[in-house]
Amino acid sequence: MSRGTCTITELSALLRLPETVVQQLAEQRCIPAERIDGDWSFQRADIERWLDQGRRRLMDDMQRRGALRRASADS
Question: pTM of the entire structure?
Answer without folding.
Answer: 0.73
